[in-house]
Each structure stands twice: as structure tokens, then as C-alpha cells.
Amino acid sequence: MTRIRTAIFTFAWFGALGAPASTQELPEYQHPFPGGYPALSSGPGAGQMYMESYFPPPVTASPTYPAWSPDGATVAFAYMGRIWTIPVEGGIAQQATSGPGYHSQPSWSPDGRYIAYAADIDLNFDLFVLDRQTGESRRITSDPALDLRPRWSPDGSRILFTTGRSGNFDLWVHDVGSDASEPLIADSSQDMAGDWVGDDIVFVSRRGAAALGSGSLWRWDAETGEAELLVRIETNYQAAPVVAPHGGAVAYVTDASGTNDLYVVPSRRGSSGIQPIRLTHTTDTDEYFPSWSPDGERLVYAKNGGTPNHLRTTDGGMGFALYTVGRGGGRPKLIPIEDYAWSEPMGVVRVRVVDTDGDPLPARIYMTAADGRSYFPEGSFPRVVSVTEDYYFHTDGSFSVTLPPGEAELEAWRGFEYEPVSREVDVRAGEWTTVEVQLERWTNMASRGWYSGDNHIHPNYGGHYDITPEDLRAKARAEDLNVANGTIANYWGNSRVEDLEHFLGHPHPHPDPQTVVYYNEEYRPGYFAHMSLLNLTELITPFYIGSRGTATQELYPDNAAVLRRVHDQGGIGGYVHPYGLRHRDPIAAGAGSARELPIDAALGLADFVDVACIWSDELGTAAVWYKLLNTGSRIPATAGTDAMTDIWRHPAVGTTRSYVYTGEPVLDYDEWADAMAAGHAFVTSGPILTFDVSGRRMGEEVQVDVGDRVAVSVTAQSLFVMDRLEIVHNGQVIHAVDATGDRKTIEAALDLDVESSGWIAARVLGPPQHGAMDSYLFAHTNPVFVIADGQPIRSADDAAFFVDWIDQMIDEIDERNDWNDPDHKAQVLATFREARGVYQAQVGGR
Description:
Neuraminidase
């Protein structure tokens, strides 16, 4: 490692990240991530993350999306990415479809000969029709956009479906005779999930200025082309309305009662305002995907929580089971599935994941069969990460999975400190194969007093599975994550607050002190920006403000007032998923997500900022963070994945994490939180960093005289390939070292002559890659502050930047007229002006 000598200058940095001191040309690190459905709708109120999370059908390892056959004898459903059928009374399920991709959302033709379904093949959902007489499937749509949820017309001549072809979800029809598709209901209102009422359509739409949720139920008149509201609901893309065979009623799903239940409402014109009837009344499970019996007397649906003979899995919940219930409610009846009869002979692989002592070890698993598809243990929770489109699941150390014969690939991962292991497995039809995988640490950060944590995890966020505190702990252990901060919050566009019942005001008791689960809170105001509130003894209410058109539309209290309440109870609070503004001016773009961050940083109220998060841009957030540091703030960088652990298309907990130094042999949450707020940490989506300046650790201070020299030393080690290690001073890259060899270790050392006060940090960049679940590989140390001649760190240019930022916010606040009390507006403006004064004092007479 060569030691370089250079000088620290006072840089006048504005918006730029600094020119790398290297000749290697790096790729453009993309954000949002280069993954997910490329043609997913992006219309008003959509949001790609939420659309991907809730609307497209997930691959499941238990039965979902049931559809009752026209003769009343059979139910079709989706399982393991295939369509299956089973007698209504239960028994052995028969595989109905095969071929590439993952199949779901079956819909019977009126004569019972055909089943239409949606198939996800290479990130493109198209519609297929299975001929049950021949067993052959035929593609009927082919478009880069998503085509979903086919529904046969009553006469069998047309198939209604939801599509994103216009860049906005619309309802189209496919003519069976001509094999052509055309729009039916198409505007900018996110019209989706339709079903037939004769020639009319019942569907979900955001039209009518719905304040919350993904849309309400509407009926479209085929003669007039007009739509009328049937019932207002909030449910996030789960309504799934289905019209009864007689056409007079529509069943749908809503979480109005606190969990997802089935409801029925009249579907006739002029029915708006009629009270719906609730059919299911569970308080600890959810019901989804209703389908009517042909006589209209019962509905079949899928319920999470599994069946009595299922064991709870590491991934949470017990999968789904199929039930029926009467059209007026009553006692549900289970459809028991005794076994699954695959269309070809299959083999079974039993896997044990162990540590170097031979003890079971929780882990993340990737399992790809010889047919190129991913497979999962029955009853488990299959998940996929969009950045690489890798399907995965978690295990407690042992599992069995049914696979087609041939060579399968098994991978086991566990966080960032274990070497992953890949094994090829010869699967033989009709046989059991046993495999043992041993994972070994390449480093042990906890043994050196460093403990990893994730500040932003939603155990439940409107997904299909119910995640308990023990499920969250199991996921954290499988990812080798020491601290899992569950954040209680209302979920997107909805007034329902998840996980309230799990708040204790302290970590959940457990005999393993090295894995801490603590349910805290994400405070979600619509304008000021979201914050994680940690180490709480009491929850902060209201949970959200600023939702126009609701009782919470007033922008009061501001985040500063909330942070003071958090500090009064000994907690800490900071900003989450802050910015994706690397190539835009944050002021012109509305200050991004974390609007109030500069205000609370100036007032010393914000305790951290999640520089590393999968839903914001690390480099874009770092650009604003650097400006805050340049104006004297010592707000530390932290990491919060914003993982939603009950949703199928989401990364794992700890995808981004903070490694916090407490120096203690046993993890203590209070010490961990205090050390994180003091900046004794680095953030990462993979690389492990060591860093010091003249013997001082991250978050500490070096007192020197002008002209003195400081020594900088940094090492980056990683499971993943890295592109570059960079040393940053006052927002400028002053030295960079390109990765060479296997690109998994980079070192740098500098001797720096000090000319003024400033800060020094290091960061690592790398490409997106398998096993890492962020947009690109990223790690960043917190700074060491170098104070020369006792002078504070100041930047008039960056202070002026934040003066302009706050002026814009003051103007926006001043223009709002939805205040409940004029004093509330005055209090908010006074806080903003106080912070503005802090920055204006630095601008001086510039």
C-alpha cells in the first residue's frame, strides 16, 4: 500500500460530486435500479415500487388465485408458477400447465374447455389459453407491456384483461374469433382488474379523486361509455372484484375491517351508497382472490395462515390454503389438498445448511432447476429482487424441495460476512437426494465490536403474508443482521397502520442477544418527508399528516416538533430514502423526499440520514449530505433498506446496513443506537470498510494546527466485485484507487497537509450483481472531522444553497390554506425561519 502526500484545500463545491482522481471510466450507476417490469404502468398515483409490489401476481409455494369451474366440480389455481386443478371437495391436485415462465390468474371459459391465464416469461406478462382437451397452451397476447387478469365474457367470445400498454393501466378486450385485442376502458385513471356484468364492466379505478388507496369499485356502462361509483375502498391493488353469475352482485377484497376480508355489494347501476356485506371475519389472517361458484351460492378464495398440518416457515406465515364460504358469509370450508400430481416425474432434494461446527445455520437460498425455473419448499415464501430478477427464500437450516430431473443449482448466502456456496445437484426422478452445505465466515465484525443494523424495515406492509416478530428475527438471522428495526407505519396511500400490536417500547425479548428485533416507527408526513424514529418507549402520533382530501391534510406538526418529542423520551430520529436527485437540482425538483432535513440538521434535531437505501439514490443523497457536512453539521450517514418483508417482489432485510462500532463483546441496543447517532459507523450494501485519520475512527475529531499533516488509511474488502475506492474531502474526491485482480480488496493511504478545517471520508462504488440487492454496490464511511486552529467547518456557498432551499419551502407553506389553526402555520414558519437564520449567518456578506 503506497502512501500518497497531498494537501487539503477548501473546495467551493456546488452540486458536483467531484472529478475522480483516476483514469478508469466508471459505468453510470443507475437509479432507480435497472430491473423490474420494464413496461410497468407509471401513471398518476401508481409508483413503480408499489405497482410491482402489489398488482402483478406473485409466484407462490401454496395455492392462490382459485377459479371455480363452470360445472361446479373443479377449482383451478396457481401453485409453483403452474396452473393446477383440484375437485371442490379436495384431494390430489393435478398440474394443468407447463412450459417456460410462471403462470397465474386462471379464468375458465363458460363451456369449461379452456382456461385463460397470465404467464410471466422473461419479465413480460402475456396471456395464454390452455385447451384442457389437448393439454396445449397458446399465447393470445404478445406485447412488451404487462397483460394481466384475463376474464372471459359470459358468451365466451371475448376476454377482458388489464394492460399497461399506454403507460397507464387500462382495460382491453381480446376477441377470441379474430384473435385481436383493442382498448375498452382507457384514460389516465388507472383502470384495472375488471369483470363482466353482461356487456358492462365492474372495475377498480383511481378516478373520482380518491384520496387514499389504489382505487375504488366502478361500473362502466357499455351503451354510454360512462362510469359510476359503486363503493369507495382503500385497498392497495388487492380488490380483485368478481361478478356473480347472475350479475347482481360483486365480491371484492378490502382491508376496511383491519385485515383483508371478502365483501359483497350490489353491482347494478345506481347502487352507490348501499352498505356492503362482510363475508369473512378473521382478525389474524387475510382472505384474497375470490371466485364465484356457477350457481352464485358460494365463493372460493385463498386465505393466508396455511392449514393445520402446515408448519410455520422461516419466511413467515404458513402459506395459503383454499376455502369456500357462502354468498352471505357463514363458516368457511377448507378444500384439503392431499398432494400435488406433477405432469412429469419429479425428484426431491433435502438440504441442510450448517456452520463449521456442523450446526444448522439460517441462510438465504437460490434454487434453480434444470428447466431454468426457480423452485421453493412447499408452504414457503418465494421472493424475487428486481435488480437481478433472482428468486430466493430463507431457511432455518433445513428444507426439502421438489424439482424436475436434471442438474439443479443450489446457492446458499448469509449476509456480507460469509462466503456464499454454490452446489450443482443431480436430481433424479422418483428419488430423494440429500445435500449438505457448509458456510464459513471470511470475517467476524461482531467479534471486533462492530454490529450491523437496518434502520428501516416494514415487517407488514399490505403484502400477502403475515410476518410476526419471530419471523422478522428469523429473516435477520438468515441475513446475519444484528439489529432489525421494524418500523410501524401506515402503508402507501392507505390509513391502515401496520404492526401496532407488536410495539413494546423496548426490544422484543429473546435469549439470543446478538440478534435484536425492536419495533419502532416510520413517521410519514406527506410534505416534510419520512423519518425513522428509533429507541422509542412510546409511539408518536399522528402517524402521518399532509394527505390532501383527508382529515390529516394539515401540515402540522412539522418534523422538528416530532423530533423534539422523540428526544424527550430518549429516542433518536432521522431521514429515510432521502433523494434521487443526482442529475437534478434538488430545489427545482421540490427538494426531493427529505424536504425538511436541512432545517432539522441546522437546528441539531435530526440524528441521522439514511444515505444507503434501495429506494433512493446513494450518490444523490450523498451530494446533499456533503453540503450539510460542509456547513458544520455532523449528522451521520446511516442505512435503512426500507424492506417490506411481507411482499414477494422485495429485497431482503439488511440489503443496506450500518455497521456500528460499540467496542463491546455483547450487543446492547442502547449503546448501538448512541454509537450510530455519534457517527461511529459505516454504511454498506456489501463492502466492509476500515478507516481512520491519524488514529481517529469514524465520527471522531482530530485537532491540528494549520500546516500539520494527517495520515489517512482505508481498506475495503467485499464478497462482491468493486470498481473503485475513493477518498472524499468536503464533498470532493481527492484520491481514487481502481479495483484490480479479483476486485474484492482495495487499499489506500494518504498523508495530507491541512490548510483549513474540514472532513474526510471514504466510499466504494461497484456494479449491480447477483447476491447484492441494491441498484449498485455502495459503501461509505462516516467522516473524521479535521479541525484546524479551532476553526469551525463552514461553506458560504453550501449555506446559500440551503437558504434558497428553505425560502422555497417557506413560500410553499405560506401558500397553503388548509390549516386547522392559524397558530399552527405560524409555528411551522417560525421553525423554518430559525433554521434559515443558521445558514444565512454563514453566507454573511458574500
